[in-house]
Amino acid sequence: MYAQMIKSTGEGVKSLDEMEPQERAFQERINAGGKIEPKDWMPEGYRKNLIRQIGQHAHSEIVGQLPEGNWITRAPTLERKAILLAKVQDEAGHGLYLYCAAETLGVTRDQMTRDLLSGKMKYSSIFNYPTLTWADMGAVGWLVDGAAIMNQVPLQRTSYGPYARAMVRICKEESFHQRQGFDIMMKMANGTEAQRKMAQDALNRFWGPSLMMFGPSDAESVHSAQSMAWKIKMNSNDELRQKFVDQTAPQAEYLGLTIPDETCKFNEETGHYDFAQPDWDEFFDVLRGNGPCNTDRLEARNKAWDDGAWVREGLMAHAAKKRAAKLAAE
Amino acid sequence: MSTQNEWPLWEIFIRGQHGLSHRHVGSLHAADAEMAIKNARDVYTRRNEGVSIWVVEAAQIAASSPEEKGSLYEPSNDKVYRHPTFFDIPDEVGAM
Lengths: 330, 96
Ligand SMILES: [Fe+2]
Ligand SMILES: [Fe+2]
Ligand SMILES: [Fe+2]
Prior knowledge:
By secondary structure, chain A is mainly α. Chain A contains 13 helices and two strands, in the order ααααααααααββααα. A two-stranded antiparallel ribbon of chain A has the order 1-2. Chain A is globular and about 70 Å long. Chain B contains two helices and three strands, in the order E-E-H-E-H. The longest helix of chain B has 12 residues, at 33-44. Chain B is elongated.
């Protein structure tokens, strides 16, 4: 998902009996559906895991602006341009909500930014793919935001209060994103032959990477078991991926487009769509930094940070001067 | 690197259209209050969520601590008579 491959303590889930009273009270509160708030006691692993997960999610929202920002100046109409601009601005907002949620856990925004820029912290693999044509704006909204929604909706019930509240805000805004993408796909799929081909090509390129967004199967993973006990992960990766395919396959059919997977068919017995796993070797390779755009994305973020330094510093100096002048006048 | 000089954190409160009190909606970084209000406009009112914005520097907020839960809130636990449902009013009296 937007947060992929989050590793926890790796020690396996403790039972309530094995816990000290403080930790037991904490776990019992989570089991009962209660929320953990910033000043509450929490196990170190919970805090660390959440910082990694929320941070990775925030970075994904920020880096995710780049592939779409790429088309703002080249949108086919003024209306499409305004819509895309609003969508990309929303993603900046999502990044900010999430950074603030992470900050309540005792990490600073600048620290998280530094860890993104140095490559120490990750963002979703999906944003390391290029957006080659206007149809990609359709495919990204429809598939990438669609997959993000699958994961974010259940996270509104996550155990950490500030994270859950950020998710509520984000989810309210996401369905606009998916719909504007699907709207572009409808236009393209019903347009000229050349447009239809572009739409099909965009689906071909984004299908596999969208399935990868959910991360590899984690049915056996101790990390995931711990995250699920803490309710910072609500569903298994496979469960969400299946839900995504079940929702998306009929939509592709409606568009008259073909999912690039011959095995993708409705299975009467299971009541779900069968589908082939994406290329996991490619996924791990992208995570290692070898995707088509990893270098571009990090360079763009580093450049933005470096070029903005004088503005950040200048505004702080200005604020300090104004504060001093105000004090002197009192 | 300007990390020694990080913009302070501001907590943002917004009053919606319908006359309810200002409500905490989240936080953001800004160099000063004026900029915090402008940023809050962009981050938290993109869809007409509010007609008034308050910004408070996060460092200026004093908060109760979870450990005080008992001593702070217990005194009201045994004062059920503060709730109207404590009193049984006969049906024939009508709505009250
Ligand atoms: Fe988003
Ligand atoms: Fe997104
Ligand atoms: Fe989105």
